[in-house]
């Protein structure tokens, strides 16, 4: 049996800080992305499987939290029968796993926190966006801090491969993009390795399997479990069989403008119902809509969001495509590469405490910047993604339009490509090899 890899999660520092500041902390993200492991690493390392170690950081919290999961039918039944009594009897520091399964618990948590407000008392995890759960009557506003956990970033995978299991938490690429720019340097092309990374995705349990058919089987079984078990718990769906088909259609259109008519066309289901299904898939973190960036300086902007799959490994499994098939399909390769870069940047940004927002830019003349990143309200940068190994001045046309529209807020623009040289092209514009997205110090 292969040895289990415990990947370092670079959001752990943010989680520790949240526990020092807030009575309730929620880790939410897709099922199987590592929420429970992260919670145990930080707050109850002694309850991890033997030999995995921990990532505990110093704080004033209890040294070992008590762990309960609402996947346990007995625990869930007790909490549903008497939420107030269940919460009142909990120990000082507690992890409550899959809390979306008992939405009535939030009222009880609010009352308990208001009775005795101490930081780091309750660490919750949720595999759906519990703040959008209709049955939840209280959001714990002012009492709860939320930490979003994604599937593994490439830098976290690199950390899991080294014996020390430790990495610099600073996202080097984003620091360069919003800081001093990119130094001229050379590196090796990724080539086939890039395609393998796209197909592999970022779910720890999938990466534990051999690449190819067995890993794709994990993703397909994962989706079936989501549809058959998790989705019915948060919404009533008449046509559960439509959800995998809808997600497959979305995978084929990842990184494209959201078009509800195209998604609804193969189904004998109304467009409003398909829109509701898309919203539901967003709530369980399988789909994301990337909003358009606006500027008063430009009037001819496309104001339609883009649709992205939450993970490229899941997208490839849905489409039944392996590394060889993806290498032969350049159009799909370009789409999945854009989603891969977008998700990698989202994962890196989640480690940072400062507010980071993501958009796309497209005007009616066809100029498009794949990813626009805002840091706070003062700084903005653009990232264009190219699957090829060369970059020319023409590849920066849309980034120049974005620079002009953003004015003084624009701090940098990058064309990411699978080449060897990192070089400046213009004032604040750079061509940067894709591997530096996660290999920059």
What does this structure look like?
- Helix content is 39%, strand content 17%.
- The protein is of the alpha/beta class and 441 residues long.
- The strands form three sheets. A seven-stranded mixed β-sheet has the order 6-14-15-13-12-11-10, sandwiched between helices. Strands 2-3-4-1-5 form a five-stranded parallel β-sheet, covered by helices on one side. A three-stranded antiparallel β-sheet has the order 7-9-8.
- The longest helix is centred in the middle third of the chain and has 22 residues, at 213-234.
- It is globular and about 65 Å long.
- It starts with 11 loop residues before the first helix and ends with a helix.
Low-pLDDT segments, ≥5 res: 50-60, 162-166
The shape, in one word, is: globular
Query: How far apart are the termini?
Result: 34 Å
Averaged pLDDT? 89
How much helix, percentage-wise, in residues? 25-40%
Number of strands: 15
In what order do the strands lie side by side in the largest sheet? Answer: 6-14-15-13-12-11-10
Largest sheet: 7 strands, mixed
Radius of gyration: 22 Å
Q: What is the percentage of strand-forming residues?
A: 15-25%
Highlighted features:
single chain, 441 residues, alpha/beta, 18 helices, globular
Outline the secondary-structure elements.
Layout: H1 12-21, E1 24-28, H2 35-43, E2 66-69, H3 73-81, H4 83-88, E3 94-97, H5 105-115, E4 122-126, E5 144-148, H6 154-161, H7 172-178, E6 185-186, H8 192-200, H9 204-207, H10 213-234, H11 242-252, E7 256-257, H12 260-264, H13 271-283, E8 287-290, E9 306-309, H14 312-319, H15 323-328, H16 330-349, E10 356-362, E11 368-375, E12 379-385, H17 397-406, E13 410-417, E14 421-426, E15 429-433, H18 436-439
Parallel strand pairs: 1-4, 1-5, 2-3, 3-4, 12-13, 13-15
Antiparallel strand pairs: 6-14, 7-9, 8-9, 10-11, 11-12, 14-15
Helix pairs in contact: 8-14, 10-14, 11-14
């Amino acid at each position: 049996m292969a040895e289990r890899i415990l990947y370092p999660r670079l959001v752990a520092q943010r989680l520790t800080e949240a526990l020092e500041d807030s009575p309730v902390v929620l880790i939410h993200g897709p099922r199987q992305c590592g929420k429970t492991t992260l919670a145990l690493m930080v707050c109850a390392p002694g309850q991890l499987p033997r030999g995995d170690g921990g990532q505990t950081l110093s704080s004033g919290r209890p040294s070992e939290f008590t762990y309960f999961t609402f996947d346990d039918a007995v625990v869930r039944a007790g909490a549903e029968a008497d939420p107030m009594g269940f919460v009142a009897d909990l120990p000082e520091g507690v992890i409550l796993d899959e809390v979306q399964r008992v939405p009535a618990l939030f009222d009880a948590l609010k009352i308990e926190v208001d009775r005795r407000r101490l930081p780091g008392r309750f660490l919750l995890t949720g595999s759906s966006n519990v703040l959008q759960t209709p049955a939840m009557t209280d959001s714990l506003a002012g009492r709860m801090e939320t930490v979003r956990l994604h599937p593994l970033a490439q830098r976290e995978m690199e950390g899991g491969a080294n014996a020390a299991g430790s990495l610099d938490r600073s996202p080097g690429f984003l620091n360069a993009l919003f800081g001093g720019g990119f130094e001229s340097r050379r590196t090796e092309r990724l080539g086939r390795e890039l395609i393998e990374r796209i197909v592999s995705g970022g779910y720890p349990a999938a990466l534990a399997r051999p690449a190819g058919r067995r890993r794709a089987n994990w993703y397909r079984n994962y989706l079936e479990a989501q549809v058959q078990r998790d989705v019915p718990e948060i919404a009533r769906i008449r046509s559960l069989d439509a959800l995998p088909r809808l997600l497959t259609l979305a995978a084929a259109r990842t990184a494209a403008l959201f078009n509800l008519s195209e998604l609804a066309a193969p189904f004998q289901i109304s467009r409003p119902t398909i829109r509701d299904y898309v919203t539901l898939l967003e709530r369980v973190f399988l789909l994301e809509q990337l909003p358009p960036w606006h500027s008063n300086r430009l009037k001819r902007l496309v104001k339609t969001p883009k649709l992205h799959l939450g993970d490229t490994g899941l997208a490839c499994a849905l489409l039944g495509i392996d590394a060889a098939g993806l290498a032969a399909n350049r159009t799909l390769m370009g789409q999945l590469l854009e989603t891969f870069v977008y998700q990698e940047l989202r994962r890196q940004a989640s480690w940072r405490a400062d507010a980071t927002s993501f958009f796309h830019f497209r005007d009616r003349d066809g100029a498009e910047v794949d990813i626009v990143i805002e840091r706070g309200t003062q700084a903005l940068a653009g990232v264009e993604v190219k699957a090829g190994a060369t970059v020319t001045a023409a590849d920066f046309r849309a980034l120049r339009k974005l620079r002009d529209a953003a004015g003084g807020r624009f701090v940098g623009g990058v064309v990411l490509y699978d080449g060897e040289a990192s070089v400046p092209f213009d004032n604040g514009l750079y061509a940067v090899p894709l591997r530096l997205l996660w290999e920059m110090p």
